[in-house]
Amino acid sequence: MLVALAIAFIAFFSSCGGVKHPDMLMLQNIQTQLAEIDTLPALRIQPDDILSIQVSSRVQEAVTAFQNQQTQVTGGAGENALGIQEGYRVDEGGNIFLPYLGKVRAAGKTVLQLRQEISNSLTAYVPDATVQVRFVNFRVTMVGEVTRPNAYIIPNERLNILEAIGMAGDFTPYARRNSVLIIRERNQVREFGRINTQDTSLFSSPYFYLRPNDVVYVEPLKAKEYATQGDFLNRYSNILLPFVTLATFVIGIAVAK
Description:
The protein is α+β, with helices and mostly antiparallel strands and 257 residues long.
């Protein structure tokens, strides 16, 4: 009887470390197939955005003027926080103020449209001007059950939810993968959306591609306390097994006598 109990106990401990719970898997129903990639809607500039506007020209005075007028913007603390950046802030009215051109309407336009408009307007002053425009404040905040919660600055204008999770070091074992919350604020409107990373439907979700200042919250599993207990067994099973085996052996000898 004791031997049977010992074998069952050992089998229980051994099985704890080898089974991966279905809730920890992603994209469970994916198949080998081809699928069209949706075109990412172009980001529209809005008030409080920070834009980097770089002008190249043989006329050094024009380049210097643009460089000098960009103001320093201070972001939050942390390794990946915004830090000190130079850029043009879009004011509450949706405008920026540029050398030579004065007030320029920016809100509602894409960076490509704004770049083209600035380039066309500068022709009268700087005929060979080359203009580059990009967002400085494309920041995504990852919180909850991810390995490295933080605010991350994105160097480009295209980031999807899977890339963001990878950037934050992946989910923790206790993450609720089928209902990741996205908090989005654009044009003074706050919206909430959820995305299921375990299903291929996420690729067609309007929240698959993230937007500047999105907050991604990964909720913990409701049974996290039980998962924590299971994690304890996985972690210490190798230490406990020899003692359990020895105790069973000693008790068996004592009973035999």
